[in-house]
Design a protein that fits this description.
There is one protein chain. With 366 residues, the chain is α/β, with parallel strands linked by helices. It has two domains: 76 residues, Fe-S cluster assembly (FSCA) (GMP Synthetase, Chain A, domain 3), CATH 3.30.300; 245 residues, Rossmann fold (3-Layer(aba) Sandwich). It contains eleven helices and 17 strands. It has an eight-stranded mixed beta sheet, sandwiched between helices. Strands 3-4-5 form a three-stranded mixed beta sheet, covered by helices on one side.
Length: 366
């Protein structure tokens, strides 16, 4: 006769499995759902805070091993699920109420490949199973329409005059490039920039999204101020190249977000090195390690290093970023790894803010 197993015994066994990013066991985090016991067969769902969790397979394996050690267990089945964690303001604000996380991608200066990085991160998050949107906030130099092959497409609106984002590659997209042609220069002063960005944030039917990435223009000016004053940002990602001329402006972007109390999720070093496909030699064309230098200085994590890859340019110009055009390439794999790191950092930040808010409510009720 098979030894009976209780649900509590299973939960106790699973307490040894810890999420390395959240630094807590999966039971106290509430990840274990729908436990079923059929004699010696045990099954349950492991519900993570993002489908892009970089350690989901390791967590699944850890669960199987922990439960299989219990006397009387003959079989363990773990099904991976996800429920994306949300910023504290999710559902409580009139601006983007259905967007769980609003992430600004900034660089401080132009020419570092920020839009290319943003486009590929958006696709990597979408490929993991998340609902993703991308807002091109670069009013003077929009490039997202080209990268997603939707140049010349026009926007439509709802009956109540809300703008509908375009859909491309499974992502909701919005850009000033959809409102003007490639040969028209946008010659606007600050108030006009402020107005259009506000409309993009408040008059657009984004629908329910797990992540909305904001591709910010270079600098720390009108557009950035409008965004931070209009929407409760969940976090910011800083893009830089290794050389000092880029690091100077990346520092400024980082400090700006710190001043307006937006969590810095991490730094990405773009154009970090060039790896020759034929000989395997690695050339550090712009030096290397600049992002690590800032990370150490401001105690901010490094999310990853992206190599110089000619295919990134070709695929972006052809209207299908490399993550989707060449999914098996090394560069695409690096982008997916970085997207997982961004999602993990976002989950950590949300948990920290949520617990802080809960403690504050408890203190006020005393």
């Amino acid at each position: 006769m098979a030894q009976s197993i209780s649900e509590q015994e299973i939960l106790n066994a699973l307490k040894v499995v810890k999420d390395p990013d959240l630094n807590r066991d999966i039971v106290s985090l509430g990840f274990v759902k729908k436990i079923k016991i059929d004699q010696g067969k045990v099954s349950f769902d492991l519900e993570l805070t993002t489908p892009a969790c970089p350690v989901k397979e390791e967590l699944k394996k850890g669960c199987e091993e922990a439960v299989r050690k219990l006397p009387g267990v003959s079989h363990v089945a773990v099904e991976l699920k996800s429920h994306v964690s949300s910023r504290p303001q999710f559902g409580q604000t009139t601006v983007l109420p259905q967007v769980r996380n609003v992430i600004a991608v900034a660089s401080g200066k132009g020419g570092v490949g920020k839009s290319t990085v943003t486009a590929n991160l958006a696709l990597a998050l979408s490929d993991s199973g998340a609902k993703v949107g991308l807002l091109d906030c670069d009013i003077y130099g929009p490039s997202i329409p080209t990268m997603f092959g939707v140049r010349g497409k026009k926007l439509e609106s709802t009956v109540d005059q809300k703008i509908l984002p375009l859909k491309a590659c499974g992502i909701s997209l919005l850009s000033i490039g959809f409102l003007s042609d490639d040969k028209t220069a946008v010659i606007w002063r600050g108030p006009m920039v402020h107005q259009i960005i506000q409309q993009f944030l408040t008059r657009v039917e984004w629908g329910e999204l797990d992540y909305l990435l904001l591709d910010l223009p270079p600098g720390t000016g009108d557009a950035q101020l409008t965004i931070t004053q209009t929407v409760a940002l969940s976090g910011a990602v800083i893009i830089t190249t290794p050389q000092e001329v880029s690091l100077i402006d990346a520092r400024k972007a980082l400090v700006m977000f710190e001043k307006v109390k937006v969590p810095i999720l991490g730094i990405i070093e773009n154009m970090s090195y060039f790896g020759c496909a034929k000989c395997g030699e690695v050339a550090e064309i712009f030096k290397r390690g600049g992002a690590q230098k800032i990370g150490d200085e401001y105690k901010v994590p490094i999310l990853g290093e992206i190599p110089i890859d000619p295919h990134i340019v070709v695929t972006g110009d052809d209207g299908l970023p490399i993550v989707r055009a060449e999914p098996d390439s090394l560069t695409a794999k690096i982008y997916r790894m970085i997207a997982g790191a961004v999602a993990a950092r976002m989950s950590v930040s949300n948990l920290t803010l949520s617990e802080a808010a809960s403690l504050n409510v408890q203190w006020q009720n005393k």
